[in-house]
Structures are given as C-alpha cells and as structure tokens.
Amino acid sequence: MRSALLLVLGLAIGIVGTVFAMNALQERQPYSHHLMMTMAHHAGALSAAVKAQKCDAAQSQQHIARLLETQTDLGEAFPGVDQPFKDEAAKLREKTQAAIQAAPADCAALAAAIKPIGETCQSCHQQYR
Ligand code: HEC
Question: Which atom of ligand 1 is nearest the CA belonging to 92?
C-alpha cells in the first residue's frame, strides 16, 4: 500500500516536472520569435507565388494585409528598443501599406510590391538580428 502511494506520488511529481520543463522551453521562444515567423510565413507565401508565377490578386492582398496586421505587434514583441529600430519598423509599415495600395494584380506587380518589403526586413536584420 505504502509503495503504491509512493509510486503515485512519484508519477505526480514527474508530471509537474514535465509541465515546468515545457514552460521553460516556451520562454526560450518569446513572442518576438512567433511574430517574426508569422511575418516570414506571409512574406514567404508572396515570394513563392511570384516564383511559381501563380499570383492570385485576392490571395496576395490577403497575405499583405496579414503582414501589415502582424507588424502592429512589433512594439509589444520588442519592448524598450531604440529609435533606429522604431524607424526600421515604421519603414516596414510604410512599404507594406504601399503594397496594399498597389493591390498587385499580377506577378510583375507583386514582385515590384514586395521587393521594398524584403529590403526592409533585411536592413533591420543586418543591424539587430
Ligand atoms: C524593425 C526590425 C525588424 C524588421 C523590420 C524585421 N525583423 Fe525579423 N527580426 C528582427 C530581430 C531583432 C530578430 C531576432 C530576434 C528574435 O527572433 O527574437 C528577427 C528575427 C527574424 C526571424 C527569425 C525568427 C526566430 O526567432 O527564429 C525571421 C524568420 C524574421 N525575422 C523574418 C522577418 C521578415 C520576413 C521581415 C519582413 C517582413 C522581418 N523579419 C522584418 C528584427 C526585424
């Protein structure tokens, strides 16, 4: 009886330990990581469309809109950043808004619209990543 109790207790401690370990893992991947991965997903979908020469206007617009929406969390994901970082973030917003307004209807227009966005991702990464 006593050993059965100890076994149950041991299992419970094991489960609690696992939960703690999982929380620690999540802390190593902060929100900034998820935000960047979400932006990479939408930017990646756009450049894949250009590469495949399959540029659906409505789909492009949706990915650009999601890219813009995701950026609104940059301040939350990177608290306490300096002014040049904020300038890069503002530049990204500007370029993404321009892409929305361009409403690229074909691959040539989409390629032209996402080029300045990609350049801004790169220029911020060169300084901060
Ligand atoms: C204002 C600066 C800035 C801009 C603009 C920016 N990034 Fe980042 N990015 C960072 C920083 C800083 C990191 C590393 C910090 C982190 O991942 O927590 C990063 C990391 C990443 C990562 C690696 C994520 C990880 O944790 O493994 C990806 C992917 C990424 N960015 C994609 C993009 C894409 C795509 C764009 C453009 C649409 C973009 N970024 C624009 C600052 C920026």
Answer: 5
Enter the tokens of residue 44. 């990646």
Question: What residue's CA is closest to ligand 1, atom 3?
Answer: 124
**Which pair of structure tokens corresponds to residue 37?**
């991965």
Q: Are 57 and 107 in contact (CB under 8 A)?
A: no
**pLDDT tens by residue, 73-124:** 999 999 999 999 999 999 999 999 999 999 999 999 999 999 999 999 999 9
Verify whether ligand 1 is closer than 6 Å to residue 117 (CB atom).
yes
16 class by beta-carbon count within 10 Å (0-12 exposed, 13-18 middle, 19+ buried): exposed
In the block, residue with structure tokens 């801004």 = 120
Say which CATH superfamily domain 30-128 falls into: Cytochrome c/b562 (1.20.120.10)
Compute the distance between CA of residue 90 and CA of residue 81 in angstroms, rounded to an integer.
13
C-alpha span between 9 and 58 (Å, rounded) = 57
Contact 44, 37 (CB under 8 A): no
